[in-house]
Write a structure and sequence with these properties.
Elements: E1 14-15, E2 18-19, H1 21-48, H2 60-89, H3 91-111, H4 114-142, H5 151-180, H6 183-204, H7 221-243, H8 252-273, H9 279-302, H10 308-315, E3 317-318, E4 320-321, E5 325-326, H11 329-332, H12 335-354, H13 361-377, E6 390-391, H14 392-420, H15 426-448, H16 456-484
Parallel strand pairs: 3-6
Antiparallel strand pairs: 1-2, 4-5
C-alpha cells in the first residue's frame, strides 16, 4: 500500500537540464571570453593604426601575422596547461591559476605602453586562456557518465556561454575604445570582465567534481626538478632569440606554425605508441587524425574573422545602420557570436532530441568544414564593390554561415576529443584538439598576408574550395572512422 503521507522525492537541481556544476564552468568561460574577444576585437587595429591615432604603427600584413601567431599560441599553450593538469596539479587548480593569468595580461595591456606592454600582455593572456580552455573541457566531461547522450548538448550549452561573452565583449570594447579614443581603456574593460569571472569562480569552484583536483598521471618527484630546469632553459633560449632578432614580429606566424606542426606529430606519436594506451584507445586516437585535419582547415577560415574579415569590415564594408549611426569596425565581429547565442540552444535541443539518432561526430565536423568553405565563396559576388561598398547586411549573412559551421564543428570537436581520449591522456587529448585550432588560427594570420582587395576572387575562391574538398573527404571515410572509434559516436 502506498504511503500518501510520505514526502515526494526531492527533485535534483539542474542547470538547463544538466548538472549544476556546468553553470560554474559556463560562468567563468563566459567572462573569460568577454575579456579575450573584447581585447581581440581591437587588437589588430591597435597594432596597425598610426601612433598619432593611439596605435603602434605596424605594417598591416605584419599585424595580421602577429594576431594569427598570438591566437595560435593561445591554443598551443593548451599543451602546457593540459600537461600541468594531468601530471602536476589537476585540471581544476590549473584552470583557477589560468584565470588569474588572463586578468594579469589584460591589466598589462591596459597599463603598460608600447610594444613591451603588448608583448607582456599577450603572453600572459595566451598562457592563461589556453589553460582555461584545456581544463574546462576536461571538467565538463567529468560531469557526464560514459554513454550519457547529454554530453554533446552540454558542450553546446557551454559554448553558448563562450559566445555570450564574446558577443558582449566584442560589442562593448570597440564602443568604449572608439568613444574614449583610447585602446588602453578598452583593454582595461577586458580586465574588469575577467575579474568578474574570477570572483564568481572562486566562490563556486568547491562544488566541482572532486576528481578535478586529482592528478591523473602524477609526475615522479625525481622528474620535477628536471622538467623545471628544462623549462627555465627554454625560457632563456627564447629571450636570447628575441634579443638577437631571430624571433621578430614578421616571422612569428611561421615560427608558431612550425612549433604547432612538431607538437601535433609528437602528441599523435606519443598516444599511438605509449604502453599506457590500450588497443581500443589507440584505434580511437587514430580515428581522430582526419578529424584533426578537418578542424584545422575549418579554423584556418573561421579565425580570419580577426584578420582578413576585420580588415574587410573596416575598409570594404558600409557600417552605417539606416544612415543613423556607424558601428565601430571591431563590433562587426560581434555579429557572428550573436547568431551563435541565438542558435546554440537550438542545436543543443536538436542533439538532445535526436539522442542516439543524431549524426555521428565525424559527420558533424565534416559538415561544418564544408559550410565554412561555402561561406568564404559568398565573398566572391561582392568583389569589386570598392571602398566601404559592401552592405553590412551582406557581411552579416556570411557571418551567419560561419556560425552554422562553427556549431557543427567546435563544441562537437571538444566533446569528441574527451570521448576518444585514452584514460592516461584525458586532458592532453583535449589539448590535441586545440592544436588543430592553433594550427588553423596561425594559418589565418599567414593567409591574411596574401589578401588584398585586388585578388579577392582568387583568395576567397581557392581557400573556400580547399575547405569543401577536405570536408567531402571526411564524409567519404566516415564509415571507416566509425569502425575505428569502437562504439563512440
Amino acid at each position: 500500500m502506498t504511503d500518501l503521507t510520505s514526502p515526494s522525492p526531492r527533485r535534483e537541481k539542474t542547470f538547463l537540464g544538466h548538472p549544476t556544476q556546468l553553470g560554474t564552468l559556463f560562468g567563468v568561460e563566459m567572462w573569460e571570453r568577454f575579456s579575450f574577444y573584447g581585447m581581440q576585437a581591437i587588437l589588430l587595429y591597435y597594432m596597425y593604426y598610426a601612433v598619432t591615432e593611439g596605435g603602434l604603427g605596424y605594417d598591416q600584413g605584419v599585424a595580421a601575422g602577429v594576431v594569427g601567431a598570438y591566437g595560435g599560441t593561445v591554443y598551443l599553450s593548451t599543451i602546457l596547461a593540459a600537461w600541468a593538469g594531468d601530471r602536476l596539479f589537476g585540471p581544476e587548480r590549473v584552470l583557477f591559476g589560468s584565470a588569474i593569468s588572463v586578468m594579469a595580461g589584460h591589466i598589462s595591456l591596459a597599463l603598460l605602453p608600447g610594444s613591451a606592454g603588448l608583448a607582456v600582455g599577450l603572453v600572459l593572456v595566451a598562457l592563461g586562456s589556453g589553460g582555461i580552455k584545456a581544463n574546462a573541457s576536461t571538467l565538463i566531461a567529468m560531469l557526464y557518465g560514459e554513454g550519457d547522450d547529454r554530453r554533446d548538448a552540454g558542450f553546446s550549452i557551454f559554448y553558448l556561454g563562450v559566445n555570450i561573452g564574446a558577443l558582449v565583449g566584442q560589442i562593448l570594447t570597440p564602443v568604449v575604445q572608439s568613444t574614449t579614443a583610447s585602446f588602453h581603456i578598452g583593454f582595461g574593460l577586458a580586465a574588469v570582465g575577467m575579474a568578474l569571472g574570477l570572483i564568481q569562480y572562486t566562490f563556486l569552484r568547491k562544488n566541482l567534481p572532486p576528481e578535478g583536483r586529482l592528478v591523473p598521471n602524477p609526475l615522479p618527484q625525481a622528474q620535477k626538478v628536471r622538467f623545471g630546469a628544462l623549462g627555465a632553459a627554454a625560457l632563456v633560449v627564447v629571450l636570447i632569440l628575441v634579443l638577437t632578432d631571430v624571433i621578430t614580429a614578421g616571422r612569428l606566424d611561421l615560427i608558431v606554425t612550425a612549433i604547432v606542426a612538431v607538437a601535433t606529430i609528437a602528441y599523435f606519436t606519443l598516444m599511438l605508441t605509449s604502453p599506457k594506451v590500450e588497443r581500443i584507445e589507440r584505434r580511437r586516437v587514430l580515428a581522430f587524425l582526419p578529424m584533426w585535419v578537418a578542424s584545422a582547415m575549418f579554423w584556418a577560415i573561421f579565425q580570419q574573422i580577426f584578420t582578413v574579415v576585420a580588415i574587410y569590415a573596416e575598409e570594404r564594408t558600409d557600417r552605417s545602420v539606416f544612415g543613423l549611426f556607424e558601428i565601430p569596425a571591431g563590433s562587426v565581429q560581434a555579429i557572428e557570436p550573436f547568431f551563435v547565442v541565438l542558435l546554440a540552444g537550438v542545436f543543443a535541443a536538436v542533439w538532445t532530441k535526436l539522442g542516439s539518432r543524431q549524426p555521428a561526430s565525424p559527420l558533424k565536423m565534416a559538415i561544418g568544414t564544408i559550410i565554412i568553405g561555402a561561406g568564404f565563396l559568398l565573398f566572391i559576388p561582392l568583389a569589386g564593390t570598392g571602398a566601404n561598398g559592401t552592405p553590412l547586411l551582406a557581411l552579416a549573412g556570411i557571418l551567419l554561415i560561419f556560425c552554422l559551421g562553427e556549431l557543427f564543428t567546435s563544441p562537437v570537436g571538444q566533446s569528441l576529443s574527451t570521448k576518444l581520449a585514452p584514460q592516461a591522456f584525458r586532458t592532453q587529448m583535449v589539448a590535441l584538439f586545440y592544436l588543430s585550432v592553433s594550427m588553423g588560427t596561425v594559418l589565418a594570420g599567414v593567409l591574411g598576408g596574401f589578401y588584398s582587395a585586388e585578388n579577392e576572387v582568387a583568395y576567397f575562391g581557392i581557400t573556400g574550395i580547399a575547405a569543401i574538398v577536405v570536408g567531402l573527404v571526411v564524409v567519404a571515410i566516415v564509415p571507416k572512422l566509425k569502425v575505428l572509434m569502437e562504439g563512440v559516436r
